[in-house]
Amino acid sequence: MFKFLKKDNKTAFHAVAKGNLIPINKVEDNVFSEKMLGDGFAVQPASSEVFAPVKGKIVSVFPTKHAITMTTDSGLEILVHMGIDTVELKGAPFEIFVKEGQTVTPETKMANMDLDELAKTDTTSTIVVVITNMDAVKKMADVTEKTVNASEEVLTVEV
Predict the structure, then answer these.
(1) For the PTS EIIA type-1 domain, which residue ranges apply (predicted)?
(2) CATH assignment of 10-148?
(3) Residues 6+ apart with CB under 8 A from 38
(4) Residues catalogued as catalytic
(5) Distance separating alpha carbons of residues 97 and 41, to the nearest angstrom
(6) How far apart are the C-alpha atoms of 65 and 92, rounded to whole Å?
(7) Taking the CB of the first residue and of the last residue of the chain, which one, N or C, has fewer CB atoms within 10 A?
């Protein structure tokens, strides 16, 4: 009864790229794998296109273009970090298509990553998606390693 009054408290997360979905604890960086910034998942990309993981609003694009932050309508704060130790590349392998304040969906292409350039610099291309305000999360399923297509739903988070 009165289901129309009940606020939807679930947020669907989608793969940010075509590739291999992995749990965050398998990321080759302790800050992410030990969940120091929060929990989430990662994709080892097989293509250069990077899409939004959720429906939400862009909060910031780092000057080095390696990371984008966003928020969802349900209040989740999301960090999309492209590659490991890519801040040192000063934006060179990234092309950004979104701007602060823009509303995005999982079909919105946020960036291109030059995977060949990352390989030349011996930089890991894994894209990490982190919920940075885990105190807002009531329930989150485990991520199972598998091959995914960009924008494919991979996780539901209850807030």
Answers:
(1) 29-133
(2) 2.70.70.10
(3) 79, 130, 131, 132, 133, 134
(4) 81
(5) 22
(6) 8
(7) N
- pLDDT score recorded for residue 8: 63
Tokens of residue 31, six digits: 């800050």
- Token pair, residue 129, equals 């998606």
d(CA 159, CA 145): 24
- Burial classification of residue 8, based on how many CB atoms lie within 10 Å of its CB (0-12 exposed, 13-18 middle, 19 or more buried): exposed
Q: Is the pLDDT of residue 5 over 80?
A: no
Task: Extract the tokens encoding 43.
Answer: 């994709």
Got the DSSP string for 56-81? EEEEEE-TTSSEEEEE-TT--EEEEE
The domain ranges of the chain are: 10-148
Q: Mapping DSSP to helix (H, G, I), strand (E, B) and coil, where does residue 31 land?
A: helix
Residue 100 has what pLDDT? 97
Q: Does an H or E element contain 147, and which?
A: strand 146-148
